Structures are given as structure tokens and as C-alpha cells.
């Protein structure tokens, strides 16, 4: 797709994600959409991850690295230490980057920042540019966090006993459907603070973008739009898997992991259509050793071909001899080209932790899911997968909180046996079409992106006029 040759080419935006893969991917894809409409876009990475990132394949996007308090190869001892040093260092680094571009032919007009980094808005204000907050989670989860902050979501032993939470625009939710952090920080106080900090100055941001689309969360989007000028711009999936308007946009383009692409695709090519279970828990989730074993033997019991992503640090949790015992039916890799895998004709089911990116990818590619949420927003996403969008089933845990091998087998069979899962398959196809329509020319998300570009070019700093 050719860029629009308009005054937009003189408008420069910075895009600044939290430096983890699940936040980089959607914000990079949004960058590509903006660049396709003529904006000059610079994706800002930082030194703590720059050395481990694969080079970008999207020439329309500039990439610049700023100092975040960590030298190449240096690791923080904990999330708390990382975030403390990161926040102490990055504001000055960002300001220097903005000022550097101030004397160039393309001064920065706006910074689009990860919503979990709300202090970036202060940097924007101090350097005289506008600020846009980008939410990488669903609107439904955001509403739950908002109600928790407002005190209208009462989560306690009493709430757990009652069993149902009722809030405007949301379906009735049981206790285990709620994001883990509405019940306290647990062992992750720094991440807990990140999750809720995004609302600290939400009323002050010039634009509010969400990685979702109107039809997917219609009631929630309408309720939020009555409070804030939100703009859904998703799903942020490479264009060749959706509307195909951005030429050569076949992958995200920046990765902290090296996928076993050839091995995955050659193996999938050897399988029958809809015969493979794909298993991945994303870039962060870590299963306990007992749960890992139950999942492994559940896959074996299902007697179904499987492709399982087990990150290198997690491989030691696999049962002894499991890979050898299942080599005829399964392939275990340390990372995969997930979009290509989900789009492959042999894949008939996705066992997922229900991270928001993985959920949107499966929805956009029409793959039914077995939802096995772990923490944060994943339980709520799993609720929507199974009960609202009806594109999968959710596993049941035992009294110890473990999903047994018998339960894994049951869920796989229920999704893979098409005479049973016919409704899931039809619904998956429906959401696939709606996702494509949202980002295609004239779709709801495409219109929201066009509106942002137009207002930025016209030097209008806010949707709040």
C-alpha cells in the first residue's frame, strides 16, 4: 500500500512501549498503520532490550534506542528494581530525544506511550508536545480495574462467597473470572502498581487508544466512550493476516526471541487439516512443575498431534523422556512464529493462557481455543472466549488449583471433534471476518486512526474539543 502523500509526512510521532514483547508487538503494529497513512513514526526502544532484539523488517518505521538505566547485558534483580531505575532514568532520556528532533525537519508532535507508563505524559507536557495513551489490554479488563480504583468492585471473602459480580456493561462475572490483581498485589507489587497507575492521569491525555475493536466489546466500548473519548484501533495484527493493505507486513518485526520457524512450518506441512493442537503460554507465563507434567501427559493422552512452545528456561520442567516418548505425535520448540502457526491449515485448536495478544490473534485467524488462564487479565479474557464470544472452552481446575491431564484430554477432544465444536468453529469464522472489517478501509478502527492522523496534521491536540 502506498503512503498518502499529504502534509501528514511532515508530522512526526514517537511510539514508546514498555520493553516486553507483549507490549512491543501491538504498539509496533499501530506504528505501521500510522506510517501507512503518511506520518513519520519513530518506535523508541531502550538499552535493556536493544541488544537482544532482532532487527526490524519494516523500513517505514524508524527505531531509536534511549538509555533506561541499564547497560547492555545488565539485568535487574527484580521487577521492582528494574522499574525503579527505569522510571528514574527514562524521563530525561525521552526528553533529550524529543529535543534532539526539535531542530530537525521533523520535530515530534506527539508521543504515543504505553498506558502503564503514565508519567510519559509529564515528559510530553514539559517538552510542548501532545500525549496519547495506548492500552494493551481489553476494554473489559480496563473497566474492572477502573471500578476497583473507584471502590465499586468489592473483592473479598464475602464477594467470593456471593459468587457473582455485576457491573455496568459487563456480563455477570464469578470470582475466578476477575483479573488476579483486583484481589491484591500478591508477590508482584511493582506490576500491581503498573496495572493501576494507567488511570492516574487518564483524564489528561490528549488521545486514548485501545487494542480492540468496536464489535468485539461493543457494550463495554460504548460505556467507556460515555466517560472518555476512547478510540479502539485494533486488532493490531500484521496486515497480511487481516486486510492485506500493507504490503510485506507479514510479521511484527521486532522480537526478543528467535523462532524455530523452519522446523515449525515443515512439521505442520506434514499434518492433515485441523489435526494439530498448538500450545503456547506466551513470553512471560511460567507453569509450575506439577502443572507442566499434567499438561504434558494430557497432550499424550489426547492422542492428537501437538506443537508445544516451551521457552528454554521452562524445558527443565518437562517430565523425563517426554519429548522422546511423544516424538511421533508432537514437536516441542523454544519459540514459534505464532501468527504463521495459527494461520496454518493443519492447526485446529490453540491451548492458550489467554494473554490479550494471543487471544486477539486466535480471534483474528479463526482458531478455536482451550483457555487456560494463569494471572493478571487472563481469567477475564478466558471468560469472554468461552461464554461471550463462544470460540472455545475453559479448563476446570481441581481443589489444588491444577488442571489435570484428564481435563486437558477432555478439553482437547471437545474442541478438536468438529461435530461437537461446530458452534465454536462458526463463531471463530465470524470474529475473523469482523476483525478484518474493523481494520479494512472504512472500518471502525481504520476510521479512528484516520481521525487521529487528520487532527494531528491540522495541529489539533485533542479529541476533547
Automatic annotation (TrEMBL):
InterPro entries from the UniProt entry: Glyco_transf_N, UDP_glucos_trans, UDP_glycos_trans_CS
An example Gene Ontology molecular-function term: anthocyanidin 3-O-glucosyltransferase activity
Which taxonomic lineage does the organism of this UniProt entry have?
Eukaryota, Viridiplantae, Streptophyta, Embryophyta, Tracheophyta
- Record-linked CDD domains: GT1_Gtf-like
Q: What is this protein called?
A: Glycosyltransferase
Query: Which pathway features in its UniProt record?
Result: Pigment biosynthesis; anthocyanin biosynthesis
Q: Which GO terms describe its biological process?
A: anthocyanin-containing compound biosynthetic process; monocarboxylic acid metabolic process
Listed under catalytic activity are:
an anthocyanidin + UDP-alpha-D-glucose + H(+) = an anthocyanidin 3-O-beta-D-glucoside + UDP
Q: Which GO terms describe its cellular component?
A: cytoplasm
Q: Would the keyword Transferase be found if you checked this record's keyword annotation?
A: yes
Q: Where are the transmembrane segments?
A: none
Q: Which family does it belong to?
A: Belongs to the UDP-glycosyltransferase family.
User: What's the EC number here?
Assistant: 2.4.1.-
Q: Which of UniProt's keywords are assigned here?
A: Glycosyltransferase, Transferase
Query: What residues does the Glycosyltransferase N-terminal domain cover?
Result: 13-52
Q: What enzyme category does the UniProt record give?
A: transferase
